[in-house]
């Protein structure tokens, strides 16, 4: 780990105490006491939490741990949509607003818990009528919208496994994800809105499924009523499907371990992996982390700015806010359009209490100056969340001072698509350390170790591992159990997060970044091999290697080293073409900003590209051990 030692060891020790009123209302006031209890009786702890939710049949056993396979709430039967919707309606909260949808133009749509259930039931009935049944897969390629939430919940209502694909991905990425899951249907929209433009989605779906004859239906939210579904029986109008299938749809009694969704995420190897989450444990863990970390109470207005296409959207826009019964804001659009104060305008307008976003967005908004947020009344805010990448102390302080006005707490939540919910995070009742995520959540035993699993002394950077199973852990990788087992078998039979971190004397964990070849561009997780594979699709390219370069706003930007076919001349035009190839296959988030044409790439004798060498050369770092370099 020597490359990282000096670079990282900032010794951030500043402590900032949470305001008294926030501590006073926090669900958990004494972290140490509760943490100790949770470690002593992990199963008892989670059983107590699970009691807060509704089960059609109670579990027989809290945990069955058959390394590395876990089952939680074994024998329990439940449905996450029952806990998200019916339960609140039965408690007299049907008229409460579940979501306030807003777009960039100030259009607004509100939906109550009762109305949401009505739509979910109708769509679930409609999906059944189209022949979908428990265990089938449906891909969802939708704008951040109430319609997307309804689509996800309608699947969950009847046990159909949803696989949401971020609507910023292009046809290649979408095709791969639909094909790997063998989805029987796709739910999409004609377009999504971004920076005042309509970005078409349906044409991308059509290209992605061209030769996938197992797709029976494409269900389309025809936003401008263009009649796009008239052409062919395969196409179904989403709103018509809802309209024509109104009525009760009783929730499928799901086994606790029945799959809820697949979500694809990038890894070191070429193809993204389909992380599988199941019903009971995911429900309990997401519900409880949101309740404690965001300190959710009955009347809270909550806003998570993520997109439903990522795990943050799944857990903390859709499932956890609903199981907690709060009112959420959901926005379609970008943070700087039509003006860079749009988020603060909406925080002010809707009196948002809890605001959850990513450091890349904060760094971007900081650039526009302190006077922008200063124009708005942000006094409703209480809890500010951060997720997706390390938050540098400078961005942390700006968030704290200019958004939180020094009256809020910042919870820096570390977790992953694989973990399903928060794992290491500040909670509102103990002091914050800017730049450090915080302490392990209840029942989680985290450690920083070397490659052999030996724990390292405080303030030493190593691999971040989790030593125990937790309810919302991934259960497998879709169709690839070996890949799943690797998480637990790479380092001494503990879960390897593939992140680098250090732990200080007080038990606060600082996340340094990825240990593997995964990039984090504006908080989006992108595999180097995915980008490389897209680049070599260009007919003039023989080989490519991709690295991440530090970027003050996006965290990292992508740089590619490209070997061209013999006789092809490098040119700016060619760079543009390569960028376009990546845009078409993967989407704008994966475009290499810089491209260098080179004669060859550094490789090991076994032919693996040594990206580490390129990175070191590019950034002027020490190259390290070169003994495996080919020549
Ligand atoms: O490197 C860590 C970083 O994001 C990775 C997980 O990415 P993904 O599965 O896309 O999920 C992102 C949203 C949960 C991690 O391996 N990461 C996530 N949260 C933090 C973070 N890095 C530092 N601090 C965080 N709070």
From TrEMBL:
Residues 530-608 form the AMP-binding enzyme C-terminal domain. Residues 91-470 form the AMP-dependent synthetase/ligase domain. The gene is acsA_1. This is Acetate--CoA ligase. Residues 31-84 form the Acetyl-coenzyme A synthetase N-terminal domain. One of its GO terms (molecular function) is AMP binding. InterPro entries: Ac_CoA_lig, ACAS_N, AMP-bd_C, AMP-bd_C_sf, AMP-binding_CS, AMP-dep_synth/lig_dom, ANL_N_sf. Belongs to the ATP-dependent AMP-binding enzyme family. Keywords: Acetylation, ATP-binding, Ligase, Nucleotide-binding. Gene3D superfamilies: 3.30.300.30, N-terminal domain of ligase-like. It comes from the Bacteria. PROSITE patterns: AMP_BINDING. Its EC number is 6.2.1.1. GO terms for cellular component: cytosol. CDD domains: ACS (cd05966). One of its GO terms (biological process) is acetyl-CoA biosynthetic process from acetate. The keyword Ligase applies. It comes from Persephonella marina (strain DSM 14350 / EX-H1). Pfam families: ACAS_N, AMP-binding, AMP-binding_C.
